[in-house]
Amino acid sequence: YYITGTPNSWNNSDTSLELTNGGGDVYENPVFKVLIPATGSDISFKVTPKSGLGGDWSKCLTASDTEGKFATNNAGADLKIPHVEGAKFYRVEFNMLDQTWKYDALNFNTYIWQAGNGNGWGSPASPLYSPAGDGKYTGFMYLDGEFKFRSGEDNWNAPDWGKGASEGTLAEQAGNLSADAGYYKVEVDLGALTYKLTPITTIGIVGPAQAGGWDADTDMTYNKETGAWEATVELAADEMKFRANDGWDINWGGTENNLTQGGNNIKVATAGKYFIQLFAYCDSKATFKMTKQ
Q1: Average pLDDT of the chain?
Q2: How many CB atoms lie within 10 A of CB 61?
Q3: CA distances from 76 to 46, 59, 180, 194 (A)
Q4: How confident is the model at residue 8 (pLDDT cuts 50, 70, 90)?
Q5: Which of 185, 183, 173 is nearest to 144 (CA)?
Q6: Of 48, 51, 223, 238, which residue is most buried, by most CB within 10 angstroms?
Q7: Strand partners, 276
Q8: How far apart are the first and last CA of the chain?
Q9: Does residue 53 surpass a pLDDT of 90?
């Protein structure tokens, strides 16, 4: 299903605003969702099934005479979302079994936070960052059993997000999530109300500043007390980076106070033995320290 309306100039062939249930069985999860950017004015639209793309309007979902319900086969008027002041996005949900729909006006924060067993339920909380302000957040953190995501760094003021109806989904003010003890790349999409955990089994120092060059890492050890990946290593006056899982999908570069994913190579000015701490966190908060021994 796809949105056809004012957000895409009523282009019945456009597939950029796709409603999805995450790919599951429609009878197990009949709720399809999409995030629509706010336009600053009212939004009118229909919902086009895949079979109707390209100009066949006869199968579109439209408004019903009953509030909160939708009609099939293009039988009603256009669906409408009235402008909500301050909204950046609207999350639209259609339940295909009971033929209901709803929307929520959203204004995403730059950061959300993880609190759980792995960090003493937020002492301190672990940050996740959304650089585009679109509700898609990424962070790196240690998890150990139960945890949740929350909107406040140091409080539980609503909203917070926990276990959704199916694996990998979230719901507001819901029960605790859970993960095996370990370090993870954590991705959250508050528009789709989903999350993904990617285990990080190793983080290493790589590059010609250390003995393995660009082919082999000097592995670091995670310290739960400091929240840092740590290593003592001999370095040459050359270049280095940090990377996870002995690959390049996840890597950090930049400067000591501003590490980013895929950032520039780090320059080691003076050769010697260094104690290095990497605080992976998220872009805009990731840092490292190098202490010459």
Answers
A1: 96
A2: 25
A3: 10, 11, 49, 32
A4: very high
A5: 183
A6: 48
A7: 231, 290
A8: 60
A9: yes
How far, in Å, CA of 266 to CA of 275, rounded?
15
Which residue, chain included where needed, has tokens 């402008």? 83
Strand partners, 263: none
Pairing of strands 170-172, 272-279: unpaired
pLDDT of residue 28: 84
Please state, as a whole number, how many other Cβ atoms lie within 10 Å of the Cβ of residue 224: 12
pLDDT mean over 5-11: 97
Per-residue confidence (pLDDT) for residue 7, from 0 to 100: 96
Local confidence band at 66 (pLDDT 50, 70, 90 cut-offs): very high
CA distance linking residue 78 with residue 5, whole number of Å: 9
Quote the CA–CA distance of 283 and 111 in Å, as a whole number. Answer: 11
Q: Beta strand pairing status for 258-261 and 228-235?
A: unpaired
Torsion angle of the four alpha carbons 271, 273, 277, 278, in this order, in degrees rounded to the nearest 10 = 40
From 146, 138, 143, select the one nearest 112 (Cα to Cα).
138
Q: What is the DSSP letter of 61?
A: B
Q: How are beta strands 177-189 and 213-219 bridged, if at all?
A: unpaired
Q: Record the pTM.
A: 0.84
